[in-house]
Each structure stands twice: as structure tokens, then as C-alpha cells.
Amino acid sequence: QKNSCILPEDLKNFYLMTDGFQMTWSVKTDNTPMPLGSMVINSVSKLCRLGGSPMYALPNAPTLADLEDDTDEEGNGDKPEKPHFDSRSLIFELDPCNGNGKVCLVYKHAKPVVSPDTEIWFLDRALYWHFLTKTFTAYYRLLITHLGLPQWQYAFTSYGVSPQAKQWFNMYKPITINTALLSEEADSFVNKLDPNKVFKSKNKTPVIKKKTPSQAAGSQKSHTSMTFSKTSSPGGNSSKK
């Protein structure tokens, strides 16, 4: 009522179930827990409007509306129309993203009356808009799917996530960060190990070494010498007796 707009049905049902959502998880490095993932949906009281003129602002203080440029590209083809910081749009902050930007609930058309159609957009630190999803339910699924990893929203921008965030993605969400590779090579993440070939039993045939004629003659000589020595020994004993 304060902003003369109606919450989308899925977001309203979410707030009827729980007033906001926050979940964090950590990883252990050298037996020391380090906060990593963060999933946040602001409560109704923190669902603050962006771009509105603050009550105690100076008369000539710059606002977000001053960033509006009429030469900005509007929705062409597959690109949706970007939100506006001025009175043409209503923008509410859903997730502060730990200072890496803002995920916003956007009412694009606020004049003459606020349209009930909303979208979820990501506003980066350079104040550029990036489209995420058309519904809150779809965004909530993205949030859970990406495990709240740092800067995961930048995966939907043209410049992507930072190298440090990419390392966390490669560790916990390798398929998500390599979507281009996955679309080009469908079998790149498929285990191609064939157990039938690996564990196939091989019957080893014993190798018979053939003796050369010289080795055979030498063995015969040694055998005759041994027999001679054995037969001569009894005669020597009898002569002594």
C-alpha cells in the first residue's frame, strides 16, 4: 500500500510462509571454519526501494535517477528492456549479495499505474543491470542450485565471475561454471571408463625356452662327468680296504 503495488503471487506466498530467508555455510581450512556460501532473501521490513529520493537528502544531491541516459539500449530481440532508476520503474532489494551487487525485484512499468508484472534483475557494483529470471520462484531455484557461492550472480553477466570465485565454482559446481563446454561436448563430463576392458582377465601362456645346441652339449658333458665321479668313488674305497 505504501508503494501502490502488489507483490507477485509466488513472492507473497513465500512471505506468508517465512519472513525472509538466510542460510550460510562454511568450509574448513586447516581446521578453521571459513564462511563461504550465503543465501539471502530480505524480510519484508528490509525490502527497501532503490532510487527513491531520501527524506533528509540535500536538495542538489545526486541520486540514482541522474544516471539515466536516454541513449541506453532498450529491449531489442531477445534482450529485455532494462529497469530505470527514475519514476518509470519500482525497484526493491531482495539480496544485498554481501556488497557484490544487489538482486532486485523490479516493476518495470509504474506509470500511469504500477503493472503487476515483475522480474528479477541483478545490479552490479558498476550500476549495470543484468537480467536473471522472470519469476521469483525461478530465481529461488537458481539461488539454491548455485549453493549461494560468492558472486554467483556474475555468472549471468557478460564478464563472468572473478578468478577467485571461479576456483570455488570448479570445486563445488564444476558443471555450472563450464556450461559452454558442456553444450559443445556432451560427453566431456561423462565417465568413459569401460569396466569390461579394465577387469578383463588375460590368460598368460607359459613361455618355453628352447635350449641351443651348445647349451644341450654342455649339459650332457656335465651329466657324464657327474656319473663318472659317482662310479669311480666306490673303487677308490675298495682299494684302501
From TrEMBL:
Residues 213-241 have a biased composition (Polar residues). InterPro entries: TPGS2. Residues 201-241 are annotated as: Disordered. Signal peptide: none annotated. It comes from the Eukaryota. Residues 201-212 have a biased composition (Basic residues). This is TPGS2 polyglutamylase. It comes from Psophia crepitans (common trumpeter). The gene is Tpgs2.
